[in-house]
Fold CobW C-terminal domain-containing protein.
Amino acid sequence: MEILTGFLGSGKTTLLNRMLSEGAFRDTAVVVNELGEIGLDHLLVETAPGQVALLEGGCLCCAVVDSLPETLLDLVRRRAGGELPRFGRIVIETTGLADPGPIMEVVRRSPLLSHFLSLGVVVTALDMLGGRTQVERHPEALRQLVLADRLVLTKLDLRDPLAPEECVWIAGANPLADVVTASDVLADPALLLAPSRGARPAVTDDHAAHSHGVRAWSFPLGEPVTRSGLAAFAAALDHRLGADLLRCKGLARTRGRLLLVQGVGARFSVTDAPPSADGAAPHLTVIVQRREAGEIAALLPWLHVPEGTMPPSKEDLQ
């Protein structure tokens, strides 16, 4: 399951239509919102009748998020029963005002959905005519940017080339994301939903300043961690940072395994690292709002507690 998001008018439907026009992507089911840009319906009906699911009644991340599991399961049931052509992926196209975080959690918190679906990449279309202003004014646009695994820069054909300071801003806004342009996707539609390259190599804070006080801090992990330590570190981040914790992603090595660590807010998942991460240095990058590196660095020792150690309580961090 992939998520395609982006603020109002960012061009995400154009990108999706381009991808779906390629024969290799005809086995795609799409979930769109009533408030979304759904001009792709006619194209999908011509090529894959019934494989568009419309969620009505409000924004996908809030008013109708509880309807999403049933919508996804209905697509899976109809595929299994032969009512729909076989599809190999589901793309959720959000409204321009959606926060991707709750949508990501739909699969993660449902054992039934997790049996049939796995969360793929979060792709955000970023309007390079007015995207920076949108991010500075609208919390939804900021969340879409920060939670992206891939950023697609749109509308570059309508303006001058990117200035160096804009490249610095993009890198600081989300140092974890792959960055491509809409032209790149037009030339190779497979780029849009290509698997994430795993955790990016550790970055410095040279480009980490961002609107709304968002900072990206990276920490190398020279020593192996424990699984109990990862759970303890996640709890410590939650207790210490609260709502100021936006995202965490990186690579951590236990004794014998390289793990991909991903967190959205206080919710963390730990899986085996993809082959593309082989050779990358273990590290964690934490994206926060109005917090300094030292506050996070003070919590790093929790990564190394012995197996079987319970996560800390708020009182343990006093």
